[in-house]
Amino acid sequence: MPLPVVLSTNEVPDDVMEPVQGLATVLQGPGGGLTMPRAEVLDLAPQLSAIVNQGELDVDEELLDSAPLLRVIANVAAGFNNMDPDLLNARGVWGCNTPDAFYESTADFTMAMILAAVRMLALGDRYIRADRWKRFEPGVWDGVLLRDKVLGIVGYGRTGKAVAQRARAFGMRILYTRRSVQDDPEYRTLEALLVEADIVSLHTPLTEETQHLIDAERLQAMKRGAWLINMARGPVVDEEALVQALQSGHLAGAALDVFEEEPIVHPALLSMDNVVLAPHVGGGTQEARYMSRRQCFENVALVLRGERPLTPVNELS
Question: Which domain holds residue 226?
Fold first, then answer.
């Protein structure tokens, strides 16, 4: 009897796949940071028992209809907005993510983005590369000190708490908001947090409730001269409204690792000196990527053995 077939939509190291050795045949997508086009995944789908993807693959009815043998989809990502848990339940397919792999790396990168924004790091880098720096210019490049600034964290899960830990080391004051009301002097409603925070950092998943959570009205509610950091998902912010808030001078700046129509970036953002841009790399350290990939294959191995995966996003009866 042939072994089940597992697809990884990109190339992964051999040791990452060890959990399924002897349990499955593994097919891999391209290397070089690329993922397999959806059309190719659909061509292979009829033979697949499991798919490991980077969170880029929409797990919809078309895919599930094409993959009658499918038992598990595993995201090399903390997010799972590419999956509908109810649809997976209806089809008897496990969905998995890796919630513990990326939060430390994302928290590190959040602090890097905050510093880059408030200390004009990217602008200074471009200034030197353009051969414009001719002499010491005291005062021209003065940013702001993080000590005693209020960091408002929107979404206080693993990543939000790790960001708070790092920010406290800089002497920042922490406020946070989350879905459940907390009896904690640092807790605020979203509306109260936006009014008080000097820097607002977003760490929420993308859901129907968080789509355009930061819209024109809430951007205007932010303190004049504040910064917005988006480390969540692009559609959490109304990008057009953000552009207007920056162009009007209401916000001092922004740092964005994610974008509403990723990988398309609003053209106005590209020319703004007070905006720091990154290509969705916040969680991407070598250690985190390895941990996440390995856990995906561990989840696949458990399901192929008829067991419950370690980190499911749905529950099968």
Answer: 103-277
Dump pLDDT digits (tens) for 215-236. 999 999 999 999 999 999 999 9
Secondary-structure percent of the chain, ordered helix, strand, coil, rounded to 5 = 35, 20, 45
Do 168 and 186 meet the contact criterion of CB atoms below 8 Å apart? no
Q: Which residues pair with 253 in a beta bridge?
A: 227
Quick one: residue 145, left, alpha or beta (phi over 0 = left, psi -120 to 50 = alpha)?
A: beta
Q: Is residue 311 part of a domain?
A: no
Domain of 182, CATH number, reads: 3.40.50.720
Whose CA is closest to 41, among 31, 33, 30? Answer: 30
134 and 28 in a common domain: no
Q: 12-49 burial by CB neighbour count: b if 16+ within 10 A, else e?
A: beeebbebbeebbebeebeeeeebbeeeebeebbebbb
Which helix (H) or strand (E) segment holds residue 308: the answer is: none
What is this structure's pTM? Answer: 0.90
- Which amino acids are annotated catalytic? 233, 262, 280
Q: Tell me the pLDDT tens digit for each residue of 110-119.
A: 999 999 999 9
For residue 221, how many other CB atoms are within 10 A of its CB? Answer: 15
Do 115 and 216 lie in one domain? The reply is yes
Q: Are 64 and 145 within one domain?
A: no
CA 240 to centroid of chain Cα atoms = 20
24 to 4, 40, 51, 221: CA distances (angstroms): 5, 20, 12, 54
Same domain, 223 and 271: yes
The answer as to whether 151 is a domain residue is yes
